[in-house]
Amino acid sequence: MNDALPPSDENELSAEDLEVLRAFDAMENWNSSLSTSTLPPSPGAQESSTHTKPLALDDIVDEMMMVFVTEADEDISKMRRALNQLEQEEQINPARFVALQRAGHKLRGTAGAVDCHTIATIAHHVEVIAEQVTLGLLFPLIGSNALSQAVSALELLEKNLITYGSEQEGEALLAALATVYQTLNIDLQQPLARPAEQTTSVTHPLEIELVEETSEEAGVSVHIPARQFQDSPSSKPFIRIDSRRFEQLVKHSEHLAELRAPLDNAQAQVETALQDLHTAQARLQELESFLPTLLASSIPPSYKRNGHTSSSLIARILNDANQRSSSTLQRRIKARTSLARTSDPSTWDELQMERYTEKDTLIRSLREAIADVTVCASRVRIAYGQLELLLQDYITQVASVRSDTLLLRLAPLSTLVPRLQRAIKMSTLAQAQEVQFEVRGETTEIDEEILEALAEPLLQLLRTCASDTHTEDGDSQGPYRVWLHAQGLGNEIIIEIGFSMTVHGGAINAIRDPVQRLNGTIFSQRNTAGGVSFYLRFPRSHSAAQCLLIRAGNQHLIVPAVQVQRISEKQREKFDIFYHLGELLGFSAEDATADSRVQPVLIVAPGAGASRTTIGIAVDEIINELELIVRPLQPYLQRPGIVGAAVDGDERVLLMLDLPELVRYATKAGAHRQMFGGKTPAPAASDKQPGAVKILIADDSVYMRQSLLQTLQHAHYTVMEARDGMEALEQLLENKPDAFLLDVEMPNLNGYDLLSIMQLYPELASVRIIMLTSRSSEKHKQRARELGAHAYLTKPCDPETLLQTIRDQLAL
Amino acid sequence: MSEHPVLPSVLLSGSHAQFLEELTDKEFWNYATELAYAVSASPSRPEEYLECNCEAIGHRRGWLALVDLREVVSPPHQFTRLPGSPTWMHGIMAWRDEIIPVVDLGAYLTNNIAQPRADGMVLVAHYKDLIVGLFVGGVGSMTTFELEHMVPLEHTPANDAALCTRTTKAIKGVYADALVLDIPVILADIVEHLRMTVSL
Amino acid sequence: MSKLIMVIDDSATVRKIIETCLGREGFEVRGFPDGVEAMRWLTEPGSRIPDLVILDIGLPKMDGYEVARRLKTKPQFANTVIIMLSRRDGVIDRLKGRLAGAKDYITKPFKTQEIINVIESYLGIPASG
Q: Model confidence over A674-701: pLDDT tens digits?
């Protein structure tokens, strides 16, 4: 048995082979020993045993082993050859991996047949790894590394087989290989479906939503772990980014790096210029020190010398002049010298000459030094100017690098759209009715992490709302419509999810927590199509926030710019709710400035729509508008109404406030407790008419409403009704009741949704909320309490208890 | 077993080296084992302490273990008021990359109101992952002593009426007429107070 | 004359196993490393049409399905049973095999008894001789 096949062209049909095929095709009949063949007798014809001589079992096994070993040896050598070629070649030749794959496959089958399972397993490893490399699931270098280990193991096993007749060390080798694979991060179980192309991704993706889809459609179940939202972005090993944006970032950072050298240069120039200036200044100072000595020394010698009568008079004058200022002295000297020149040329002496020259030199030097200083100063100014220009450039580049980095993290909303579409298609409502889904503004860009965190909540919202097949009676005009409109304003994104019909309640409750974690809010409103719309507001990215720097007392604080609708003077406007910021924070009145000075008032932007209550908060001063990075405080430092803190340029901590929350907290606390240890703030202008206590009941059951109506009216309360959550909200805002009785199960917005939304309207903080529901478990009570309910009653409830509870609540 | 103290602080003087040489192998091995156990079990390792001035305590001075301190910050300081803080807290300040609460140590120990002042030092103390700034009037010298030499609080003259019961737990004892303070206890207590203020 | 079984598998070991176990049962077995060699032998004088062909799928030069198809183009092979032999056992693979003309499918690794059973189910137990 000789497999005399040329090793490299194993898989190709040679010319000879084609001949054989043609001859075979041409064969007409067999069983004729006269059939001629033009082909040379096959060199590789198998001389197989056709005898039925029963061989002893041992002989068979031994023979088998020999055959196997020979074959295995060949296969293993093939593998080794392929590996060597991989190492030696410059470029990675995929054919080598194919060869390895084939050899592995063959050896596996063969070894399995003779019960050499360890060899079979390792050969299988070789096959799988080679295949993974070919499919692009594994890096070639890692693959060849692992393969070389595996092949060495095979060689060892083969040797053992020959020497000992069995697979010694099989276990150990397998364990060793397992660690190798682990270190190299090779997963042999990984299904070999080719991942969907991601032409724009740069790094090796770990998870792709789109793969999930295409593979599901292909009917192959591919298990790829979904990316978890984690608070720390650095915990994920890989992320996907757009390669164009990445290149832009790289380009800009390179520009930045290029600017470094000229910047250093300019700085050095300024330094040199400053040095020169310094030197010139020093010289000037030095010369200045010569002045007095030189001037002073000019007098005594002349005095000593002048024994002549003519000069004695002058000398005396000079002596007197000595007492006076040096400028007079100078004049005298000049006068003297000129006199000396004109009067007595013969008495001209060299010392005088020298002195004059010295003086002259000094004056000249002084003049030069002053000029030097001037020149150097202007040089410094010029160099500094250049430095400033470059710094400007640098700062601009830094800003663009920063925005590039932020951009990298952004992805358009459209990446979520397919999933949303699917959720709707699969919803119960869509099974029963036709549902149209429309998206607008899908190009809006949002931070990838936020987007990912938002995906589940959005899907949950859709699922909850569309989980009901309850049809409206008669007024359905055409198919049901669901739409998603997204809008980005600055760092804020607003997404409207609208339904053209009544929806199942509970949507807000379901996604409240994840939305809050994103620092977002969600509220609801009736829309023009007769249905309900949900509005999601959240930050586009975790970058710096635009804030207003204000002062209350001697404390500086910051407020998010989006929370301030406008600013006004206190005198002219009347507000429904009015506070001074100091009160809200519990700062004592002594810190506040006198009321006589006009205090600016921040008008708080409504956190939710349809709020007609104006809220004004007075501050002592509005200083500036800044962009700062706000970080949350430690849990034990957190306070209601304080979102986080930022640090300004002077290392001062600035607390970031949440104005609506502060107002809400104040309103709630104001009634019976001092807030933050400060004085009790003045309650808001009350619109309660004496005597008529208003109670709102919200329940979708007509019977329930009827019976409650009777009970309450009998007790002389004014009663308002709402059939569902949306109606209840509208009633609350339009006609604020003193107490609110609500059920949990209601369409559009259920009880918990309402509780959440009510928190967004500070003006509703004074309404006493009493749950009246059939759900009696502790878990439900807890949830209601967390969301702000004041009391909890279970149905059926006897009128006495109900009235008593209401009385108790109103008394607070 | 000889009276030799902990090995690291023993300079191998000639006599000691000779002593070691004269031991038999077995004796040497025993000695070494005993020392090893002694080191790990000994609680009274001498520690370095920093002296600080905190007025409003009878003793006026305190000792803080150096291992519990991260940094000493000199004035000028900027504290931001945090609503809902206990009276003995000055506020919060920025320290390196963190925002930490700053508590007036003296006021805390006597449950008083922290008075704003321009001077004084902030000692940044840490315990596990808590970082708190302790404001003191000033700092003195550093000393090393062992806790064994400390006098328990009960035995000192009772001019500590100013100290409230809560804080007696924070004091390990008295040494050289100053209070040895237990930073972990203090920090944990402070944070607990801050946490409680919120849940209203 | 005993029934002729052709084994086409690139592994010498597998061929050896089958030759031995089937040979012991009384069949005549001829083994070839690939389809071309098998066909070459078939063109030679003294060759005969096999009664059964055991065909591996993963063959060099020409895969098993192709070989099966080619063999089946010859009317003389109409009665020849083709049995596919491979590691893979997906529904797809069985289907492909059937489309190529195979009657059955054995997966590797196999027990020799399994092979014997399958072969004998198609060819019957040869008369001992």
A: 445 444 444 443 444 445 789 999 998 8
